[in-house]
TrEMBL record:
This is Class A beta-lactamase. InterPro entries: Beta-lactam/transpept-like. Gene3D superfamilies: DD-peptidase/beta-lactamase superfamily.
Length: 59
């Protein structure tokens, strides 16, 4: 839900991930006080998740 100024209190996502090599991790991404639309917030969360996945997969 958004306030009268169009600010969304929060969007978040949580995932438990297992890489092909068996490594596991969990990630939680939180966005707060966003004026972006829901699609943009989802894209931001996906981008953060991809950066973390790529980093851990290279270890």
């Amino acid at each position: 839900d958004r306030n009268v100024e169009g600010v969304k209190a929060g969007d978040n996502d949580l995932a438990f991930v297992q890489l092909p090599d068996g490594q596991r991790y969990c990630i939680a991404v939180f966005i707060r006080n966003s004026k972006e639309d829901d699609k943009t917030n989802a894209a931001i969360i996906a981008s953060v998740s991809k950066v973390v996945y790529d980093y851990i997969a290279k270890k």
